[in-house]
């Protein structure tokens, strides 16, 4: 019966998931981002302003783990192995970990159950905190950390020391003549159905989570309704594009974006280059990749004139267990993926894209 219901309901369930995940309003989104950035850079009331050395400092940015309780509705369950290995790597190499929201799934679950089920992850995160290299930003699904009077004591219980919670972070670096601000926030601001309103939380906790758990359906895959995610990312891009020497980094959509382009948009650029060089084999391969992504629901992009100023970390709860994130190291910002390697029987790091921060400071076009 469960298998029959899975086949029957998977598409409407994912439509419903997208409906309740993102309905942003442009004016609300842009005002929220403007106000938050101004607050962080003027009085630090809502976030952290951190000066850094682009050549020597190291940051890893992960978002959207949605740690659950190891039941059928736990989207993080498949990705935990990759996440733990990734944290071990970044701790060993002395990265600062910026956790960009929705780390814990607290709309569907009670905090006590999440704490009990994710002791291994919290232990790995604690190592960063012990050397003052852990920055925790709240999202809409873990809004509890910002608005509950018990959040401070609960965090201290998890990490064995006090943890400051931020709505956003600005990393500021300077070269010989210019400065660059990297503005990081979860990205749910201005989204009426994702800002923690009571009806959405009630619906998810009482109806959506039990149904997802029974059907064993994970909607966090690029296969479903990417046009909604792309629309949200577009609003983020439209806010940051007119800004001078500011990069915007968010999570929330579960769709990686690098230099303002999604993976599909990058394929179109590669296709254009392959056609110009008359590389027929490459053209065929890229066209096949594009066709697959269209079949999965992704839409034809329009990236003409895009400024490379918007980035999205993706998520750590894809249904195949992969996780994506952004690294800042040695003057570069990079999109990376961790996936389980069947040959080595170990999670492994894969570099997907990289660009020098100096090129973004000078606003050079990057192809």
Automatic annotation (TrEMBL):
Coiled coil: none
One MF annotation (Gene Ontology) recorded for this entry: hydrolase activity
Sequence ranges assigned to domain Calcineurin-like phosphoesterase in this UniProt record: 58-256
Protein name as it appears in the record: Calcineurin-like phosphoesterase domain-containing protein
The organism of origin for this protein: Segetibacter aerophilus
